[in-house]
Specification:
Layout lengths: L12 H4 L15 H8 L3 H6 L5 E5 L2 E4 H17 L4 H31 L6 H14 L6 H8 L3 H18 L5 H15 L1 E11 L6 H19 L4 H8 L15 E2 L5 H9 L9 E3 L2 E12 L2 H31 L2 E3 L44 H6 L2 H13 L1
Antiparallel strand pairs: 1-2, 1-7, 3-4, 3-6, 5-6
Helix pairs in contact: 2-5, 4-5, 5-8, 6-8, 6-13, 9-13
Length: 401
């Protein structure tokens, strides 16, 4: 079988920011052994297979153990670049290895269908699409840097773009200027507006009684009054805030969009005029005094390329599943060496009519490694040590999951 340039299980990661095959892989960890036994040979048997051993026959094509091994290595390289540890990858591999094999089957079927319909992509089309991808990146990012971060070479990208364009032609996918403008207008507030803000947090904990909370709220109110009377926000934040952002004078870096903070904090920050001081805002983390420094809105011209790419990806996701199902039903597919098709489809429809565009706005601040496994707060000292920014981000991620 022809070697694919980019792992098929991740074939939409770079262009469209989504990996349907890996969605929920962590949640499937408990079922990994069962899936491994059901869909692929046992580890010992698999290790003994020669690279040219045929695992799947489909029409006039074959998928070998070597094909599968190369895809797994390529997936591993990309996932490690994305911050996964070797041990984490090994633990997750059983959960998505069947989808990688199924991805090879799917890509072969799509290639066969494109060939049957004489769908050809020219070099100029590939270069134009890559130019559009590069133009869609934010000004501070470069394509070379993005590829390096993903562990993908330019040659791999070119080949994958060619495959994507073939599938788009096969599905007759088009995105009009009107589609792009409509998406921008309908989602501008949610996806393309952000604020630079700073705050002072007087933290509360679950152990605080009513009297303690009252004292903390009064402290926040006094600090706010000092600010209203011309006090130095950065200095007061450094001296009083319980959030690690105090080291930056209270500023939350980078700017944030709607949906990344708890609702009371978000509402206050977006409602403030530049340099305006908020009333005391109460959240689960305590009492905040917020100052919005700047409202940022990405213009249509800045993001139209990214929207076009995202809409193409979403349309592909939505339309490719029924095509794949039809191709599988018509094809002669024989699984060998104990392999079997996975229990779930490789490609899933999008979950939302307007999925998030991660590249459309500044990303939230990365969580410190220690915040990924924070134990429940059991005393005041532990509560004070945890970053309120990390807790805010973690809270919204938990809500989304």
């Amino acid at each position: 079988m022809k070697r694919l340039a980019l792992p098929v299980a991740l074939w939409m990661m770079l262009l469209y920011g989504t990996v349907p095959a890996l969605r929920g892989a962590e949640a499937e960890a408990d079922a990994a052994l069962t899936m491994e036994e059901t869909c692929l040979p046992a580890t010992g048997a698999e290790a003994a297979l020669a690279p040219d051993t045929i695992l799947v026959k489909l029409n006039d094509a074959t998928i070998t153990q070597g094909d599968l091994d190369r895809e797994i290595k390529a997936v591993e390289k990309i996932m490690l670049r994305r911050g996964l540890s070797p041990d984490q990858f090994t633990a997750m591999l059983a959960a998505f290895k069947p989808q990688i094999l199924d991805g090879l089957v799917i890509q072969a079927l799509l290639n066969q269908e494109c060939t049957a319909q004489n769908i050809v992509i020219s070099e100029s089309e590939v270069k134009a699409e890559i130019a559009a991808i590069e133009a869609s990146l934010p000004p501070e990012q470069t394509l070379a840097a993005e590829l390096a971060q993903q562990g993908v070479s330019l040659e791999m990208l070119e080949e994958q773009v060619r495959e994507q364009l073939r599938v788009a032609k096969l599905l007759k996918i088009t995105v009009t200027a009107e589609d792009i403008r409509k998406f921008y207008d309908e989602n501008r507030a949610r996806l393309f507006e952000s604020v630079r803000a700073r705050h002072i947090l007087i933290a509360t904990t679950p152990m605080d009684d009513a009297a303690q909370k009252t004292l903390k709220k009064e402290k926040a109110a006094k600090l706010r009054q000092t600010l209203v009377e011309g006090g130095d926000f950065a200095q007061l934040a450094r001296e009083n805030s319980d959030c690690p952002s105090k080291d930056q004078g209270g500023e939350l870096i980078p700017p944030f969009q709607r949906g990344y903070m708890t609702k009371p904090f978000e509402d206050a920050a977006f409602a403030l005029q530049p340099n305006e001081i908020s009333p005391v805002v109460e959240t689960d983390f305590g009492y905040h005094i917020i100052q919005t420094l700047e409202h940022q809105t990405q213009t249509f011209e800045e993001v139209q390329g990214r929207i076009a790419i995202m809409l193409k990806g979403r349309a592909t996701q939505q339309q490719v599943e029924p095509l794949i199902r039809s191709l599988k039903q018509k094809a002669q597919i024989t699984y060998l060496q104990g392999t079997m098709p996975p229990p779930e489809a490789m490609f899933m429809p999008t979950d939302s009519d307007a999925p998030p565009m991660e590249s459309a706005s500044p990303a939230p601040a990365p969580q410190p490694a220690e915040s990924q496994a924070i134990e429940p707060v059991t005393d005041q000292e532990a509560a004070q040590k945890e970053s309120c920014w990390s807790r805010l981000i973690k809270k919204i991620k938990q809500a989304r999951d």
